[in-house]
Amino acid sequence: MSIYSILCTRTKELSAHTANLVEYLNQLSVAGPSDLRKKVELCIGKESIFSSYSNAIKELDNSNKLKDDDIIIFCHDDIQPLLSPSQLTKLLTDELILTNEPRMGFVGPAGTTSLEKDAIWWNQDNWKAWKHRGMVYHGETLSKSTGTYYGSNGQVVVLDGLFLSIKYSTLKYISLDKPEYFNGLWDFYDIYYTYQAHTKKFVNKVINLPILHRSRGELVGRDSWHKNREAFIANNKLPMYI
Question: Which pLDDT value is given to residue 10?
Fold first, then answer.
């Protein structure tokens, strides 16, 4: 079993935060299997997150021959997992490999049990109704961060894309390529990916994974985010509930 991490970043000169994240991800390991390989795939300055993720998986499979029980991580370059590498390794192994759920999909730190017609996973009315799950710390440092509590952990329809993890055997059923109806190259990929898993009867789940995120989702203000959201609404069945 191997753990592979894929993240997109803007420049070859990594920020201190991203460099620390890469070092952290390279420490993920599993006690026991002798064929464990550790790999972080950096997609630097790419024009699309969809093609970056899709091509990275193809390259990994060509070079390392991905196995069904390999774990894949897709994550932002501005996060800091607040577990030790060994703790995160155990958590992902427990949730994705040793789970009793035969159709486990994506796992991550935040998502919702109800994706409404607006396709906004953090829909405020549902937030007030405790239909969201998870918690994320937002801020430059943990000491200066604000904890955003969405709700208790458990099964969800879709997950936020700051950190997503999935078994390779399940990822084979998910299209990572940008659908033709999206114009934006960077937006709504997380909803598109995790919604696919849910509609194909895989179980997406928010797990106990504390993460510091140094962004509050400023890209939501981009015109391309709104256009991709509108296209997603027009081409998918909503609302969608657990």
Answer: 85
